[in-house]
Please model this.
Amino acid sequence: MRTPVIAGNWKMYKTTAESQAFVKEFLPLVAGVQGVEIVLSPPFPSLSVVAALTSGTKVGVASQNVHFAAEGAYTGEVSPGMLKDAGAGYAIIGHSERRQYFAETDDGVNRKVKAVLAAGLVPIMCLGETLAEREAGRTFEVVERQLRADLSGVAAADAPTVIVAYEPVWAIGTGKTATKEQAQEVHAFLRGLVKEIFGGLVAEKIRILYGGSVKTENIAELMAQPDIDGALVGGASLKANSFAGIAKYR
Ligand code: PEP
Model:
């Protein structure tokens, strides 16, 4: 039985005061939610504040990025240990915006996944095809290449800790959600690949989230799919009411 994960990615939105106001409004709204891991991913400056406010609650905190080194001369970067120290339990890695605007590669994603696991954090590892790749019939080839490269060298014992987020790039921030059938098809394919790489037990345990214009209106039908274990939510995670509505999908 896989515990579902509903994670909100605030991207580069919300000051510290706005983050605090969100958490104060949000926590009572999700107080009754059982059996769902809820995660907030604020910008770096608000991370420790959100972590302190959610400490001892069912809500966890993720960073939106991380560096793979433990420390060093990497101006502007933040290490896994520093994130843990600030109260994060998860790190989003390889979001398509990082791949698109910051030249993040599968090799870099792979190094980050391994570093984050070694530090005792949970990687939320994003992958997905672009519109051109889907239209060219290359979806499965692309996500297979990403999954294999991003998880290369990860020990089978660590693999169930990894959360995979399938985010078709054409569905992110566009209002175009993959249909439940399109999402399920890719999720089942990814789980099959995990089985091939790490074996059946890992494939049964690993959580695969869907991301791409998830909202209160479509979360229930997505979550009803057998291989969809949660959602990574951008726009609809910015308002406490709408994100709580998603976390309360059942
Ligand atoms: C995201 O940023 O990961 C995302 C899925 O965004 P949105 O929900 O706005 O499409």
Notes: The beta strands are 5-9, 37-41, 59-63, 90-93, 122-127, 163-166, 207-211, 230-233. The CA atoms of residues 220 and 250 lie 7 Å apart.
